Amino acid sequence: MRISIVGTGYVGLVSGVCLASVGHDVICIDKREDIVNKINSSVSPIYEPKLEEMLNVVIKEKKLSASADISWAMKNSEITIIAVGTPYKDGAIDLSYIKECAREIGVELAAKNEYHVICVKSTVVPGTTDTVVRAVIEEASNKKAGSFGLAMNPEFLREGCAVDDFILPDRIVIGAYDERSFEAMASLYEIFDAPIIKTNLRTAEMIKYTSNAFLANLISFANDISNICESIGGIDAMDVFSGLILDKRIAVSVEGKTIYPGLTQYLKPGCGFGGSCFPKDVKALMSHSINHFYYPKTLDAILSINELQPKKMIEKLEGLIGEIRGKKIAVLGVAFKPDTDDIREASAIKIIKILLEKGAKVFACDPKALANTAKEIENEMLFLSEDYRDALSDAEGALLVTSWQSFMDIKPSEFIQLMKTPAVVDGRRVYDRKVMLEAGLQYTGIGIKYQ
Ligand code: NAD
User: Fold this and answer.
1) How far apart are CA 288 and CA 285, in angstroms?
2) Catalytic (active-site) positions
3) Among 191, 293, 328, 352, which residue is least crowded by beta carbons within 10 Å?
4) Which residues have a Cβ under 8 Å from the Cβ of 40 and sit 6 or more positions away?
């Protein structure tokens, strides 16, 4: 099929490259000429494992091209997917990019005689596609939905493994305005081996929010329990979760082997969730729900627990080294999770800002996210390095914030050799506490408090 995709960020570009790699003809559209030029030169504008290699192949095979010209792209495609950003702004979801894009699509639709399907892939609050998007397209095109197709196909890919998630999806949700729109979208995914869930437009939108709220809820639940463990003292929350997940309703035994569902990786103490999705989506669902006269208490709790966690890292550091002012502090990891360069709402950004306010000299280290960090925080007391040794060298405290493998592999002896005061706060619980203490480090982490 011939597809155009508006917005070539993490979702648009990964979707485009993967759809092209399974045989579709894809045109990626972005307003930003620099992004368009990069894509056409086989350079990925974002870091995502496997993406650039695949982009190279689909560009060579002429299965994908990028353009800033939506008119040309729509003339040469039969489905247009909307994958522009939907940030959270001033207490609600910001639909301005969606509206602008829907209007541009509507204008082009007016000039097109063939049937064309418009599909929203961006995460939008329930009701958006069948009210806002539909109304804007109908007005700009002077056509009624039905004469053009309308669908909502939420995306579940995770940054860091986005390509694999797209190629091997666990489910494909297609919310459709009518049967014809559904059939077109189902053909797009024919080659994928995953169940297709057919719904109306707003149910598809709600499935996406429910998925993100559910996962964010697990993280905040784990952090709430961890904070209770710390308040009582003498309990390591890691031991508590190890005990919990052996429950037969969670872990299953297959041929004598215990299999832990992927969800258990969220049941761990940590310094909070970040990223471009969980924080903004939980906030947007909450405000949307309040606008519909229901106060979502669980969502409120998820967010307020998450706010606490970065601050706990600072308290723990102060507990180990006392006054922070004037001291060199290493922050290991800025990306909101490993294998991405995305720092949107990252816990590390909040932590770095507090450290700077408290007068620390901050040495942040990340294998991929430093360019984005430099754009986000400009401060003469912030120093950036890809090499953790630069960050740890002569530091009087280190905070592990993102569990990149290279940081997880740092040996206790290396912390001791490099640091002036080898004091480590583990925000992701990646190090073995006993080993760290026996090596002579001052060590603590989220979810532990021993007197
Ligand atoms: P992004 O900010 O990385 O990319 C959006 C792109 O759209 C930008 O390159 C921007 O230049 C472009 N754009 C905006 N308006 C445009 C227009 N009118 N015409 C052409 N280009 C335009 O966004 P993202 O992270 O890819 O997220 C996109 C959507 O997908 C959001 O709704 C997000 O919530 C959702 N989502 C994201 C993820 C994720 O992991 N990032 C996962 C699932 C769903």
Assistant:
1) 5
2) 277
3) 293
4) 59, 65, 66
Stated as kind and residue range, the H or E segment containing 446 is: none
DSSP string, 323-369: --TT-EEEEE--SSSTT----TT-HHHHHHHHHHHTT-EEEEE-SS-
The CA angle 414-415-420, to the nearest 5 degrees, is 120
Q: CA-to-CA distance for 448 and 280, rounded, in angstroms?
A: 29
Q: Is the C-beta atom of 97 inside 6 A of ligand 1?
A: yes
- pTM to 2 decimal places: 0.95
Each residue's pLDDT tens digit, 262-278: 999 999 999 999 999 99
Decide the pairing of beta strands 397-400 and 382-385: unpaired
Q: What confidence tens digit (pLDDT) does each residue in 361-393 have?
A: 999 999 999 999 999 999 999 999 999 999 999
Confidence of residue 451 (pLDDT cuts 50, 70, 90): low
Does 16 contact ligand 1 (Cβ within 6 A)? Answer: no
Q: Measured in angstroms, how far is the CA atom of residue 83 from the centroid of ligand 1?
A: 5
Query: Cα(98) to centroid of ligand 1, in Å?
Result: 10
205 lines ligand 1 (CB under 6 A): no
Nearest C-alpha to atom 4 of ligand 1 is from which residue?
Answer: 9
